[in-house]
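fyi for ur records
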Amino acid sequence: MSSARAKVSLPPETAHRGNLSLLDEPLTALFCSNRCPGDLILKTYDIARAMRDAGVPVIGGFQTSMERECLRLLLRGKQPVVVCPARGIDKMRIPREWRAPLDQGRLLIVSPFPPTLRRPTAASAFQRNELVADLASRVLIAHAAADGKTESFALKLAATGKPMLTLDSPANANLVRMGAKVLDPVRDMRH
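which gave:
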């Protein structure tokens, strides 16, 4: 799935560290619920590796345990990665594994939150997820647990018409009903 990408501009109050031109890439947003069935854990690892190997630019909050594992895999690649914490970043300590990609210009950290917000909240996570989806050209939701926050977010996202992908599993029937297309790793890893 290829998409042309117009230049993106951030609101003036948005803080960032790293290479701001990464926002001009055709970013794929990555989301996954905290509660994730075993078959989807394996498929999510596989798709994160495939995205890394194909050089797919990825954006996310990387807050849930599955998302953090995907970030760990993605940072081992060469593709652009944009991280959007659900907190202010002015005084944020940069994790060791982020430093080399940041220095290489392939990692960008973006936050719309003031420095006084030092811990993520449910409200800031939702606002961050909206920013991530806005900056992405397409959204991959590896899993959205029924009646969870990710499912609620996916419902709102589906109404926007933003291209939404998911992984093949009966546990993702809710996302398919919302209009998400089941990801084809061969076709959809080309961007």
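The CA atoms of residues 61 and 85 lie 5 Å apart. thats all i got for now
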